[in-house]
Amino acid sequence: MPEALAYAIDGPTGRFARTIIQRREPGPTEVLFDVVYAGICHSDIHTARGEWGPATYPLVPGHELAGVVREVGPGVTKFSVGDRVGVGCFVDSCGECEQCRAGDEQFCDGPGGTIWTYNATGRDGLPTAGGYSTCITVEQDYLCRIPDGIELANAAPLLCAGITLYSPLKRWGAGPGRRVAIVGMGGLGHMGVQIAAAMGAEVAVISQTRSKEADGRRFGASEYHAVSEPGTLRALRKSFDLIVSTVSADQNLNALIGCLKTGGALVDVGLPEHPVPLNLSGLVGQRRILAGSQIGGIAETQEMLDFCAAHGLAAEVEVIGGEDINAAYDRVVASDVRYRFVIDTSTFKG
Ligand code: NAP
Ligand code: ZN
After folding, report:
1. Strand blocks (E) in 184-283
2. Are 48 and 119 in contact (CB under 8 A)?
3. Nearest CA to 84 among 122, 31, 7?
4. Which atom in ligand 1 lies closest to the alpha carbon of residue 292?
5. Which of 14, 101, 198, 257 sits a CA distance of 20 to 30 A from 346?
6. Does residue 332's CB lie within 6 angstroms of at least one atom of ligand 1?
7. Ligand 1 pocket, residue 29 CB under 6 Å
8. What distance in angstroms lies between residue 188's CA and the mean position of ligand 2's atoms?
9. Would you give the distance in Å from CA 196 to the centre of its chain?
10. What is the pLDDT of residue 42?
11. C-beta of 267 in contact with ligand 1 (< 6 A)
12. What are phi and psi of 65, to 5 degrees?
């Protein structure tokens, strides 16, 4: 069985340490690929630290994988050895339910539901282990092709951060003549600004401070607002057709809802630890919409990768080694990342 070097954490207050895990020999329609880079998503941190409930340890997170195919099963038709591929938040689903047939495998209603890339149980009955590892075996239908124009390190975060913003921006009509605000300019948010601008929308960033303003404008925003400045959200009352919030911590959604035009939509993609209070009159009184969105299906993820390549977009990353994961987690929580940490798995050899 192929062995992978990996970084695992052994409990919610633990630290990452190097380990060895086993991967499957590729089955008839499976692909074994070498993970070259793995992004660190804030969801990895919520999961590893038990903020979304108990996780299964030892835990190898990572759902933004970019790499190169090493071996394919005899029935694989979609990929060949040497292809540049990526995997996002899930590695399997039933393929037959209404959601899967609609291309929304992330909402699979089948018996096992969507099988997440880590902290889940795979079709072999074994715990899934994510991308902080040197290789992984995945069914061909759950892989995407990384376009030639995007470096693997900059492509990895697209598999979660990119699709999580692309999907709601497209669904809710970001485009010419529409005013769109992206709240929180971290890993997800910095992709949202770039994608919304490429879709032709007029883009504003709503951040905690102005420390990233120059970057926000470089990513395509024409406005930048800091909530630390008193009166900011009040001044933005009824300003936006669409707001996408990527905030990872508890926040006041009611104030953001007030920034929507009549009939505007606030789509939340952030998943903080605690429930948020909601004042329904802000929605009812202006016929506003509050929605959520979770990543995207495989076909839409491929469409997003091709869109990013066509528009010259990619994640801006800080490449780190396996030994740096613990420190990187603390920096992400402190909003001190420009704009995604990406782990170089060649450092795992020690
Ligand atoms: P991230 O890189 O840490 O970015 C989160 C941003 O939220 C920060 O950069 C910061 O933006 C803002 N923020 C953080 N603490 C805040 C606070 N106390 N008050 C106000 N703003 C604050 O995280 P990420 O990887 O982009 O993920 C963001 C959230 O989305 C996480 O909860 C994650 O679990 C979730 N997520 C959801 C999906 C999905 O499918 N729906 C997919 C991936 C991730 P500024 O510095 O600009 O203020
Ligand atoms: Zn993620």
Report:
1. 202-207, 223-226, 240-245, 260-268
2. no
3. 31
4. 41
5. 14
6. yes
7. no
8. 8
9. 16
10. 98
11. no
12. -105, 135
Cβ 295 under 6 angstroms from ligand 1: yes
Q: Provide CB contacts within 8 A for 191, sequence distance 6+.
A: 157, 158, 161, 162, 164, 165, 166, 313, 315
Q: Give the DSSP letter string of 40-91.
A: --HHHHHHHTTBTBPPPSSB-----EEEEEEEE-TT--S--TT-EEEE-SEE
Where does residue 213 rank: exposed (0-12), middle (13-18), buried (19+ CB within 10 A)?
Answer: middle
Kindly state the DSSP code that residue 236 receives in the 8-state scheme.
T
Kindly state the tokens that stand for 1: 């069985």
CA distance 62 to 345: 12
Residues, CB within 5 angstroms of ligand 2 (ion):
41, 43, 160
pLDDT, residue 230, reads 97
Q: Which atom of ligand 1 is nearest to the CA of 208?
A: 48
* Spatial distance between the Cα atoms of 180 and 182, rounded to a whole number of angstroms: 7
Whether the Cβ atoms of residue 63 and residue 118 lie closer than 8 Å to each other: yes
pLDDT value, residue 196: 99
Q: What is the helix (H) or strand (E) element at residue 214, kind and residue range?
A: helix 213-219
Look up residue 130 and give its two tokens: 């994510």
Distance CA 46, CA 48 (A): 6
| DSSP letters spanning 183-210 | E--SHHHHHHHHHHHHTT-EEEEEESSS
Q: Is the dihedral of CA 341, 342, 347, 349 positive or negative?
A: positive
Across-strand partners of 16?
Answer: 9
- Cβ–Cβ < 8 Å for 154, 317: yes
| Ligand 2 centre distance from Cα of residue 234 (Å) | 31
For ligand 1, whether the C-beta of 42 sits within 6 Å is yes
Run of H or E including 274: none
pTM: 0.97
Which residues of the chain fall below pLDDT 70? 350
Which tokens hold the place of 213? 């303003």
Supply the pLDDT for residue 124.
83
Q: Can you read off the two tokens belonging to residue 255?
A: 């104030």
Distance CA 154, CA 19 (A): 26
Q: Is 47 in the pocket of ligand 1 (CB under 6 A)?
A: no
